[in-house]
Design goal:
Length: 439
């Protein structure tokens, strides 16, 4: 049932060259969503996964940035706020895009896709684009400490995290007179407040008006973003080996970033964001602080401390990871990124635990499947009751559930690859899909 549902969601949300995160709430292509979606699609149709990634990188800017939204010209301006007119910018390909970025988890998706079906031509084609994405971050966003900044909460992917409350207080909420679209689909109790939106809009307008160049009133070094950046370097080294290039510079960059993260963002129990404008660590309780577990270069002692924190403060043993520690001020079990469990975050931590602590990775895999089985492929879940929130038929929930089933199995029955193929055929689709090859 879960498999059938997951395949149905991915098939229905496919738009010919990429997958929308959700038909109504998010009707365009989103950057890190496409990476997670490709990871799931790699289990169904590696070709579709490659197409999804190439389509996103087709809208890469000349400076290397991969915009967080690539707009579908066939969708009405009013269908999503802030839409293409708000951002007012086009990629060299001609696509209207936003001008901010999201965590660079794409190298990971490329590698998973390549593992599902080794296609060296694809690796060669996408490798320079992944390198350019990293180069943009180094050139535009790297501090003397060797860490990458985000300039908008939307760049963290965890937009409404309580971790951003403090730096956002410094932002004068001037952006008014806009009409939110998200509340047409989802209850306001599960989405950011109007006040938060005013600040998001203010920041985005200021960045836009500087030609997407100057940092505004929000500049933060986020652990999840930096973990994704360092992991991308680690994977770029693997890709370089595969296509006959020198892995050395990528290996050194992965090590240096991991070290900088430990030196500057680790508080002894959890990785914390640093507010670049004040120079201080933000004392938060965000599960983003656990994602450095992804980094193979992370010292064992630091990993052990993180796992202790995950057990004590995030109830990791129960298999459902809240996005924010329930005992911390600001936690909300149902509101977007302020506490609910998200499958992409659980999946990232699961990746970081599989080799280190398989006895903890197993329950986390079961937890993701349990949430999806109980409430469907929702955008997020109450971490106590597993009730579903946000959008329905959400693509990365579907995709990552497929990946978990393929690797971990359902109820301990492993390797459901053939079953997934069967479900796909039930929908009249075959492995040979995704004919529209952009970029
Ligand atoms: C959410 O963010 C968008 C803005 O980018 C929104 O709320 O309209 C976040 O959950 C983000 O991480 C995600 O990529 C996006 C699409 O799923 O939705």
């Amino acid at each position: 049932m879960i498999l059938r549902d997951a395949v149905r969601v991915l098939v229905n949300n496919w738009d010919g060259g990429y997958t929308v995160p959700s038909r109504r709430l998010y009707p365009h292509q989103w950057s890190w969503d496409s990476a997670f979606i490709a990871i799931g699609n790699a289990r169904l149709s590696p070709r579709r996964a490659r197409t999804e990634l190439l389509s996103l990188f087709g809208a890469q800017w000349r400076d290397g940035r991969v915009p967080h939204i690539v707009f579908n010209p066939k969708v009405a301006e009013a269908a999503y706020f802030p839409g293409p007119r708000f951002w007012g910018v086009h990629a060299p390909s001609g696509s209207a895009t936003s001008g901010i970025v999201q965590p660079p988890v794409h190298a990971l998706a490329v590698w998973k896709t390549y593992q599902a079906e080794p296609d060296v031509a694809f690796l060669r084609r996408i490798h320079p684009r992944l390198v350019a994405q990293q180069e943009f971050l180094r050139a535009a966003r790297r501090s003397a400490k060797g860490l990458i900044s985000i300039v908008h909460p939307w760049e963290s992917g965890m937009d409404n995290s309580p971790a951003w409350d403090e730096p956002l207080r410094a932002v004068e909420p001037g952006g008014t007179g806009f009409v939110r679209k998200d509340l047409d689909t989802v209850s306001s109790a599960e989405r950011p407040t109007d006040r938060d939106y005013e600040r998001y809009v203010t920041l985005a307008l200021a960045y836009r008006d500087s030609g997407y160049q100057r940092h505004g009133q929000f500049q933060v070094e986020d652990p999840l973003f930096n973990a994704a950046y360092a992991l991308a370097e680690h994977i770029l080294a693997l890709i370089a080996r595969e296509i006959g290039l020198d892995p050395g510079p990528h290996e050194r960059e992965a090590e240096a970033t991991t070290e900088a993260m430990v030196d500057h963002l680790f508080d002894g129990a959890l990785f914390q964001p640093r507010d670049v404008r004040t120079g201080r660590l933000i004392s938060s309780a965000s599960a983003a602080g656990l994602t450095p577990l992804l980094l193979p270069e992370l010292p064992g002692k630091v990993a052990d401390a993180l796992i202790d924190t995950a057990l004590d403060r995030f109830a990791l043993k129960d298999g459902v990871l809240p996005s924010y520690a329930p005992s911390a001020p600001g936690f909300d079990a149902a509101r977007y990124w302020r506490g609910p469990s998200w499958i992409n975050l659980d999946w990232l931590v699961w990746q970081g635990l599989k080799d280190r602590r398989p006895e903890l990775a197993g329950p986390l895999a079961n937890g993701m499947l349990c949430a999806a089985a109980r409430s469907g492929l929702r955008e997020y879940f109450d971490p106590f009751t597993l009730s579903g929130h946000g959008s329905r038929d959400f693509s990365w929930s579907a995709a990552l559930v497929l990946d978990v089933v393929a690797e971990h199995g359902l109820n301990g029955v492993p390797a459901a690859g053939r079953q997934i193929g069967h479900e796909l055929r039930c929908f009249g689709e075959t492995g040979d899909i995704g004919d529209h090859v952009p970029a």
